[in-house]
Design a protein that fits this description.
With 257 residues, the chain is an alpha/beta fold. The protein contains ten helices and eight strands. It binds zinc ion (ZN). Residues 6, 8, 36, 93, 205 line the site of zinc ion.
Amino acid sequence: MITDSHCHLDYPKLYDQLDDIVKRAEYNQVKYLLTICTTLKSFERIKLIITKYKNIYGTFGIHPHESAKYTQVDSKFILNIKNKHNKIIGIGETGLDFYYNYSEKEIQKKSFIEHISAASQLNIPIIVHSRNAEVDTYEILKSESKNSNLKVLIHCFTGSRDFAKKLIDLNFYISVSGIITFKKSIELADTVSSIPMENLLVETDSPYLAPLPYRGKDNEPSYIIHTVEKLSQIKKLPNESIVINTTNNFMKLFNLT
Ligand SMILES: [Zn+2]
């Protein structure tokens, strides 16, 4: 059974046909789904989704694109929300996006630190988005995790080999998306081959980033089988071993039994 560790089921493209999407995921052996929060509005739907479907878990957090709009979401606010919902198993997605800079850098950093603080107090993982911000992401995570057992999942990894090594040295988990199936992702595939199996998870980031052969179309959790297959080629391991290991890593990281 496969685990899609990062999807956005609250987005209209998925939410409007969720029963069918969940059925197709099950049919393709995708057993667990983690639907990731990006805004307060997104969280309203996530609450409905995790109540309705037994195999779907959720997170709470504000995406770095949106952090300027939700400056009231500090660590206290996050703790308050998490404590009301036991199927909320992670904090995020948070992090830094200096490619789009939809929110000012300083606001993104402050929000990121508030999310980290909440996650370490709750002792649950933080889901991190990082784009064009490797140095700052690493520095913040390193300094904030110094005095705590911060659990970190770097989502949709596309970074350098050096960045991957630094993350592994801090015992962080790294999730790969459909990007690894793209023809141009030769360097990324090489980097992923260097990441130990114990640190790897898989995700769709649906409705975005559909893997080959669906590239350019709307993505959905059932398509994760193509990412698993590519990862099996990259790691030179049987498909089944990728499935078992990435799901076990997910269960371990999120403390699920
Ligand atoms: Zn995402």
